[in-house]
Structure formats: C-alpha cells, structure tokens
TrEMBL record:
Residues 22-307 form the Tryptophan synthase beta chain-like PALP domain. Its cofactor is Mn(2+); Ca(2+); pyridoxal 5'-phosphate; Mg(2+). SUPFAM superfamilies: Tryptophan synthase beta subunit-like PLP-dependent enzymes. The lineage of its organism: Bacteria, Pseudomonadati, Bacteroidota, Cytophagia, Cytophagales. This is Threonine/serine dehydratase. It comes from the Bacteria. InterPro entries: Ser/Thr_deHydtase_PyrdxlP-BS, TrpB-like_PALP, TrpB-like_PALP_sf. Keywords: Magnesium, Pyridoxal phosphate.
Length: 317
C-alpha cells in the first residue's frame, strides 16, 4: 500500500471555486413515501441532474483545470466507455481544450454520441482493459495529451468531494451519508468532506453483489481487484481505485451489498415516487438503505443519486 496525501478541506473548497462556473449546483429532494418505507428521512442529492447527467463532471473538470496552460494546450485523454468519457469531453470543450477518448468498439451508440456531441475525439479499441490501456498509451505518445483517469487520481477525488461540500452547506444535520461505490471516487470524496465537516457522521456505500470488490477489500483490509463482474449497475463495473481504497479503509464506515433485484426495485421506486430518471448505479444506495433498515432507523440520511444516464431501449422494468 502506498501512503497517499489526502486532499485537505481547503483544497476541496478551492476545487469548488475552480469548477463552479462549469458545473451545476444540484438540488436536494425528499420523498415522504420513500421515507415511510425506509423508516428514516432521506435527502436525495440529485447528481442525475448534473451536467453530462453524472457527478463525474466535477472530478473531470477539476483535474483538467489543475493542469498548467501548456499541458492543457496539448489536450487531455482517457479511456472510458461511460460517464467519465462524456464528462472529460465536456470539460475540455468548455475550457477550449482537446479531449481524446479511447472507447471500446462495443460501447453503446448513445455513449459514443454523447462524447462526440461534447466535442470529444473518439479513438476506438478492442474491448478489454489491456487493449484500452495499450491504445491510450499510443494516443498519449502521439499527442502529448495529459491522462486523466476516471477515479484513481487525487484531483478527481477532490472534485468529486465537492458534491458532499454542497450538501453540508445546506445545514441539514445529517446523521449519515451514503453513496454507490464502483471505482470509489464519489465514495472517497464524500468520506473526506464529511470527515472535515462533521467527523462523527458515518459515511456508507452500497455496492452490487455481482461486483463487490470494494466490499471484499474493505472487509479483508487488503486490496482485492474485481474479477468477472456481473450486475445491471453498469456504472459500477470498474475495479476500486488504490488511492480511493486508502481513503475508504482509513475513514469509511461500512459497505453494504445488494442484489440486482433490489437495485431494480429501488430504481423503479425513484422513477415512480420521485419522477426522477436515475441509472441503476444511482439506485444502489437506496437499495442498501432498504435492505439495512436497522442501521438507518430514525436517522437523517444524505444519499447521492450518482447519475441519470440510462439506455431507454433496455429499461429493467
């Protein structure tokens, strides 16, 4: 394990000042029907209404804006088939820079169209991590662009931490916070901000049973990479980042796993009761509360709805 330096509160606040002109301050919503079912008060932070439909806009924008002008002139690059690809493409576009996005050839057309729409240049590769990484290396060599990873990067974590900063600024006396966890950028960022703003408030995460490397790593206290993930929550099919793991292990409270059936039920509940479009990954945190009611009973819980990018052709209900 490396010993990484965690971003301080002043740096998270500076990140917020840096990105606020480029991202939305998203609303917090409530639903009395869901509160009754859950046995607690839930405050939903709607990052599904964020630019590019995901919290990823925060980290990508912060990391890009922290580059020097000469670095930014050469552009930024990443490999991603999902929300980070769109987030980096938009951040670069808004800042007048070039974004090179390596995407597997089997990425959904909706996601490719989003990246192109935000001005990103797509470089296709064969599906599989090793092909993505090899193609990215080639792009970095040819362009001199700076690599901005989706989650395992302190500037990205610092950007994601601004979401919880907005929540705490609302002066709601949260008894607990909960996020989904995949790569761990949002969970780690939420943990850091909450640690600085309200040290005693626990921060939890929900994770699909079919992609539970964060749960396994947290419980065993050693980093366990993801193997053969299978879940409807496609935004959480990524292996936990090593920097993220250090923060989660040091300061996180607990991780709960949920089934795909529980995820779909929670997603449907948010659609029907709150009239909010959320992707399966977003519903994981609510599914975790509903499956662990004793932990949250009678509490005020801040929950981050991480994104709203769904494939309308393949709705799970």
């Amino acid at each position: 394990m490396e010993n990484y330096r965690f971003p301080k509160l002043i740096e998270i606040k500076q990140a917020y000042q840096r990105i606020m002109a480029y991202v939305h301050r998203t609303p917090i919503m409530t639903c009395s029907t869901i509160d009754k079912m859950a046995g607690c008060e839930i405050f939903f932070k709607c990052e599904n209404l964020q630019k590019v439909g995901s919290f990823k806009a925060r980290g990508a924008t912060n990391a890009l804006l922290k580059l020097s002008p000469s670095q930014r002139e050469k552009g930024v690059a990443t490999h991603s088939s999902g929300n980070h690809a769109a987030a980096l493409a938009l951040a670069a576009n808004l800042c007048g820079n070039k974004a090179y996005i390596v995407m597997p050839s089997n990425s959904s057309q909706i996601k490719k169209d989003a990246v192109k729409g935000y001005g990103g240049e797509i470089i296709e590769c064969e599906p599989g991590q090793k092909f993505r990484e090899a193609k990215l290396e080639e792009v970095l060599r040819n362009t001199g662009a700076s690599y901005i990873p989706p989650y395992d990067h302190m500037d990205v974590i610092e950007g994601q931490a601004t979401c919880a900063l907005e929540m705490w600024e609302e002066k709601i006396p949260f008894d607990a916070l909960i996020t989904p966890v995949g790569g761990g950028g949002l969970f780690a960022g939420t943990i850091l901000t909450t640690h600085y703003k309200s040290k005693k408030t626990p921060v939890y995460a929900g994770e699909p049973k079919g992609a539970d490397d964060a749960y396994q790593s947290f419980k065993s206290k050693k980093y366990i990479p993801l193997k053969n993930p299978k879940t409807i929550a496609d935004g959480l099919l990524t292996s936990l980042g090593k920097r993220n793991f250090e923060i989660i292990l040091a300061l996180g409270e607990d991780i709960f796993t949920v089934t795909d059936k529980e995820i779909v039920e929670a997603m449907q509940l948010i659609f029907e009761r709150m009239k909010l479009v959320v992707e399966p990954s977003s519903a994981v945190a609510l599914a975790a509360i509903l499956a662990n009611k004793k932990v949250f009973a009678g509490k005020k819980v801040g929950l981050i709805l991480s994104g709203g990018n769904i494939d309308w052709e393949h709705l799970p209900f």
